[in-house]
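Severity: low
Component: inverse-folding endpoint
Summary: output formatting inconsistent between runs
Steps to reproduce: submit the following structure tokens with default settings.
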């Protein structure tokens, strides 16, 4: 395996790790906002329902974008791994 390909593989692995981290962060934010929804319903939150709905919608969109980034990064990594397997056969 060439040094250039090793760098590409390492970069692809790094992109997947970063994408997983960002997606997990957005998923956690979404979980937290959904928990806050219960507080709004009970009247225990300082956030308004409108603001919370806006935050949830925005975070859902961001999470979906991060999920797409993760899928793209994983596909790139899978390609590099399959390329390695073909070289060694």
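Observed output (run 2 of 3):
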């Amino acid at each position: 395996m060439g040094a250039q390909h090793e760098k590409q593989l390492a970069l692809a692995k790094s992109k997947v790790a970063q994408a997983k981290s960002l997606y997990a962060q957005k998923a956690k934010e979404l979980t937290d906002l959904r928990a806050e929804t219960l507080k709004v319903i009970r009247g225990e939150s300082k956030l308004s329902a409108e603001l919370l709905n806006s935050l949830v919608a925005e975070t859902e969109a961001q999470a979906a974008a991060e999920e797409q980034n993760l899928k793209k990064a994983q596909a790139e990594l899978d390609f590099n791994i399959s390329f390695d397997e073909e070289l060694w056969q």
